[in-house]
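Hey team,

Filing this mostly as a record. A colleague (T.K.) asked me to run one chain through the structure pipeline before their review meeting, and I want the input and output archived in the tracker in case anyone asks later how it was produced. No errors, nothing strange. Just documentation.

Input sequence:
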Amino acid sequence: MLTSYDLIMLDQNYQTKEDIFDVVAKKFFNKGIIQDEATFKTALYQREAENATGLENGVAIPHAKSNTIKKPTFAVIRLNHPINDWQSLSPENQVDLIFLLAIPEEKAGSYHLELLSQLSRILMKKESINNIKQAGNPEEVLEALNIEEETKETTQTNNQGLILGVTACATGIAHTYMAAEALETAAEEMGYEILVEKQGANGIEDRPSEADVKRAKGVIIATDIELQNMSHYDGVPYIKTKVAEPIKNAQSLINQVVNQPFGEHLSNTTSEKNVDSEKNTIGSEMYQALMSGISYMIPIVVGAGLMTAIPQIGGLFFGIEGGAIENAVYANSSNSVISFLYYLNLFGGFIFSLMYPVLSAFIANAIAGKVGMTAGFIGGGLAGGMMYSLNGIEDHAASGFLGAIALGYVSGYFCRFLNNKIKLPKNIQSLKPMLIIPLLSILLVYLMNLYIFEPVGDGLNNVLFDLISQSSGIYAVAIVVAMATAFDMGGPVNKAAFAVTMALAANHSFPMTANILGCIIPPLGIGMAVILNQYIFKKKNIYDETLEAAGYTSFISGIIGISEGAIPFALKNPLITIPLNLVGSAIAAILATIFRVEIWFPIPQFWGWPLIEGLVPYLVSLLVGVLFVAIGNIFIRDYLTNKRRSSRY
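Output structure:
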């Protein structure tokens, strides 16, 4: 039994959420259900901060999943007077019936967790809720819940066709199953057959067969987290929304997926394999972790690009030379707008510095959970060279985005190993995630970056310097410089290419033309690919919504001379993106060399054009390189998308 008579509290006069949490935590502790009241309440409040736990019809389902919980349990609290400020999916919800769930961290996948999932389904039935509200004693409440006998009814096939659904919430319990129940109920009322996959605390449940996927009219993806193995649904019309949305608007979502889907579902990579979670390989796990890191990094890149572009371009309207807004003399300008633009530019640079830590942290989080995030975040900061820039140390080779990826994997797998292998007595168990794992993992990340990844970056610098200095002929130098600059988009190879060509330009030995082209062609070409595809070629499903937004930011970044806007595309599809960047930059460099274009100043932004010797041939060379990258991206992605889709049928 998951509850008891003394945990069913009827007609109480508690006035706040805090009162309820305090009372229930004390009851759970006295009954030996939890080990520590404070830890349990912290888990409850953390869950409250993630998403609304109030629903509608006066119901709320606060819940916590924690190692301090010994066994799955729930309490029922019915109030005499509703709580009006409980954050709820329905704004007018006044909470007077609370189901408070406690789920042990290690019980995922157990029979008890199945029963808690069934409880979540029961809460979607108004008849059950009304019976509980009218119950005269705890026995009648248990009878209304009837958890042990609750079974899922088989949905019958209707003539409207088959709809699929995928639901997932942060904790994998309540909202996951309630959203599924809401979709099933609405589909039955509308005459559709429906199959809903749940990606919850039990893993992947109720995944439809490939035959069902092929005949489906559409799939509704309702999630607050990164989903697993979604290539199973490729080629199916889809919509995507928050996990709470079906609870409120299930029928409208079904109408939308049938009549106005976003398009056909396409996974984030052309090489992802369709594997079940129980057959998950280390390769697919690493891929999923990388995709998770990228998905969190893209908004950082977009925000940084915009915050950098605005002051750079805005300064031109005040007669400030292009790129000069970053000069500290403008910090205390008498013109408050100029001063604001200076600090906004600093702000954009600060956001860019968070790109690698976020990437690495969420790679580690996807592998090890929260215990991996600390080491991952710090490892990403080391890879981005934050330790050196904060201390004013210049000319130090950082490991760049490749180092951030590697350190994310190191952090994730090492922290997961420690979390699984270290066993402590219950009274000091909290030391493991709070002290032992951070201490050991942070130290490992620092040592590996210092003695492995940074030397690799420094070695690349030396190899590149030797390669350029030993290259014979202006065309060979131009090709090597352009390709090295385009290779890692702001990483150690890019910076080494800049340092070498800057030294050559300083004594007028070789212009910086190839370096400038290699800097801006990747972000401009990738951004142009998104723009051309949207308005001219209109190939379906080669970019998802996230990458389409990132494409515009990449294009803007290229205009103002920032390579990093192209990184999300390179990380998601390196075998497509990086070779096209290299070849497109090399072609442009060769053309510019043939046309005798010379650029002697390190100004890749458009405001450096007046300084170019041979501006028209430079723009022609640039356009050829950009179009090569753009059109190559569009048609290669389209070919691989069609090839994969045809192999499914």
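Quick notes for T.K.: Confidence is low (pLDDT under 50) at residues 148-158, 268-280. Residues 159 and 191 are 7 Å apart (CA to CA).
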